[in-house]
Each structure stands twice: as C-alpha cells, then as structure tokens.
Amino acid sequence: MVGRRRTNGQAGRRRSVAGSKRRVKIADMSLTRGARRNRILFGLSVAVLPAFVATGLSMPSAAAAPVDQSVSASSVIGTEGLDPLLELAYTMAEREAHAQGVPMSITSGHRSREEQQALWEDGLRTYGSPDETRKWVLPPEESTHVSGRAVDVGPLEGAAWLTANGNRWGLCQTFNNEYWHFELQTLPGTPCPPQVPDAAHR
Asked: Would you say 130 and 121 are in contact if contact means Cβ atoms under 8 Å apart?
C-alpha cells in the first residue's frame, strides 16, 4: 500500500510538471504571436495612417490601441492632445527635418476651449470686428486647434521646409496668410490642395 501511494504520487507530480510545461509553452507562443501582431500593426500605422485621415476613413478599433500606445511613447514635444494620426505624421516630419539639419518644432498644438476663447476675445480687441478677427483666429467651436487637428510650426525656416516637404506625410499649409499653420489634408506623397486666403474662408 505504501509503495503504491508513492508510485501514484510520483505519477501525479510528473503529470503536473508536464502540464505546467505545456501551459508555459502555450503562453510563450501566445506572447510571440502578440508581439508579432503589434509590430505589424505599428508598421502599418507608420505607412498608411495619414492616408486614412486624408480620405476620411477610420482604422478598425482593433488597430487603434497599439497605434496610440506607440505614438505616445515616442512622439516629439508639443504633440500632446493632438489627433493620433496628426501626431504620428508630424512626429515623422519633424524627425526628418532635424535629420536634415532644419530647426522645426510646434509653437502651438492642441488648445483647450478656454485658451481658444481667450485668443478669440483678444482678436476682437485687436481687429475690431468678428469678420476681421476670423481671418486670424476662430472661435472655439470652429477651431481645428481645439479639435486637435492643427499645429502651428516655427521658426520660419522650419515652416518653409514643412510647406515644401510636408505632403510626404499628408501635411499641408492651410492658410495663405499663416505660414505656420498645418493640417492633414492630402494622401502622403500627393500634392496639397490649394491654400485658402485665411481662416475665414474655410
């Protein structure tokens, strides 16, 4: 009886060890598949996300989370609060500009409604009427800065470089009177649409 119990106990331990090894192996395979999937999704986001913005399409929800995580972990300064697709496109553009020795950074990105309202009221005092003010600043409900879909860029050298090269990432100078204001407006690698005279002509 004693010998039989020992044999059964040893067999049980062997089964337990074998089961643990199988579970570890399955977990490792699952982790490997997950890591591979995240790498593929991130590569996809770098290649095509700006195109989805420009065409008004949206990525499936399953692909959205890995993109947001990768962008927030490696984005440049000033992109906080931007639409993730603009954040990604601008980050790639700024890094390329710096690689070419061109100074470029965001001077104004996402704004709160309160910040935009203050700018609007200051514009009314400066320009004297809503019609004139709208050429330079829009109220919060119309501003693409509040919605996180616009960036202002400086200095002049960097903005000029982005005007000339930004379409590689879908970025375009939007208003003729604001050399610093950029939005995602085209498919990467295709020409930007004509600029409008000012924000009042949106």
From this structure: no
